[in-house]
Amino acid sequence: MTDSATSGWGGPLSGVRVLDFTRVLAGPAASLALADLGAEIIKVEPPGTGDETRTFPPMRDGESHYFLSINRGKKSIVIDLKTEAGVALARDLAAKCDILTENYRSGVMDRLGLGYETLSALNPRLIYCAISGFGMTGPLKDRPSFDIVLQAMSGALSVNGEPGALPSKLGIPLGDLVGGINGPMGILAALYERSVTGRGRLIDVSLMDGLIGMLGYLAQLAFFTGEDPRPQGSQHPNLVPYGIFPASDGSIVIACLTNSFWGRICAALGMPERTDDPRFDTIEKRRDNRAAINAMISEFTSQRTVEELAALLAEHQVPHAPILGVMEALSQPQAIAREMVVETEHKVLGKIPIVNRSIKFPGDTQPVPDAPPVLGQHTGEILEEILGLTPGQIEALRAAQVVG
């Protein structure tokens, strides 16, 4: 864990302002990526509990681990969008922002009076990114969704798990997190387009579309064969050996992509004669003789420790890895060298460790991200500095419970 060096450079999106109506996971992951790149994120939260994830246990001193994980570097303002005055404030903020992000079901923002057509009339440069489970069109556009639903309907769940067993949900909530990839990608493309045209645009991000797009070669395999790819556990449908193998004190990943790696694996495991074995000398033959290869390798690996195997495989430059728990992954030398865990000062919790930005810019160092905000932490600051309201006007809005 380290405190990163600070500098005056906020990131490549410094000066870009985002009005963020997202909550839970998919949308906040998208605005988090923009925050990491230096954008100013104004997170609009409802009165009371705010973003639903603020209540997700486990908690520490009233703060949720879940909320902390995806809201670093953002500012929080509480606005009651059920009031006309609250909606008016949101419109005023949208007029002064470059980007708006939201992840309500299709039509919700329109009903609030905060849809794209309304806001683009006020601010033609506004880039409006709507993130939802199924997108703004199609028969499922009004249907609610959660990560496991998206995994199931995209085909991703069907190929995950052990052969012959029920499919297994991905451990990482990729169905939601794909919004944190495709949302910012579309936004950054629209920012470039705006630099040419002077106008913003509406972006429609469907999480199911995103997961279908991530099927990659599995989709093409289905097109080629006319059959559904089946679960392979940790193994690859066509590449062998590729997966998890037993060690005397645990297990280890070994991955063979090409024939050159097959020769290295054979040398590392003390059986160089297998390199040219006519049963195993092509990718197709190794796939067809999967059981024999896996048994042969498992017999060798099961008699040695993970550390011994890692040393052998590293010596022969074979792609491999021990299977690390989350705590070990966060504290490994590579993660430390890349400053992937840093400390930041939280308003309630004091110094806390957080995961750092995953994109680096050699030659420039961004300061440590600000801690996730407590509910409404920046309400007064935003109203005063962006909208130019006086302390008296802000107090009147608080008294009327328009803001919190």
Topology:
Elements: E1 17-20, H1 26-36, E2 40-45, E3 59-60, E4 63-64, H2 65-69, E5 74-78, H3 84-94, E6 99-102, H4 108-112, H5 116-122, E7 127-132, H6 147-154, H7 174-177, H8 179-197, E8 202-206, H9 207-213, H10 217-225, E9 242-247, E10 250-255, H11 259-268, H12 283-288, H13 290-301, H14 306-315, E11 320-322, H15 326-331, H16 333-337, E12 341-346, E13 350-355, H17 379-385, H18 391-399
Parallel strand pairs: 1-2, 1-6, 2-5, 6-7, 7-8
Antiparallel strand pairs: 3-4, 9-10, 10-11, 12-13
Helix pairs in contact: 1-8, 6-9
Pfam family, one: CoA_transf_3
GO molecular function, one term: CoA-transferase activity
Keywords: Transferase
Number of strands: 13
- Shape label: elongated
CATH architecture descriptor of the largest domain: 3-Layer(aba) Sandwich
Mean pLDDT: 93
Strands of the widest sheet, in order across it, are 5-2-1-6-7-8
Fold-level CATH name of the largest domain: Rossmann fold
Keywords: Transferase
Protein name: CoA transferase
GO molecular function: CoA-transferase activity
Organism: Sphingomonas cavernae
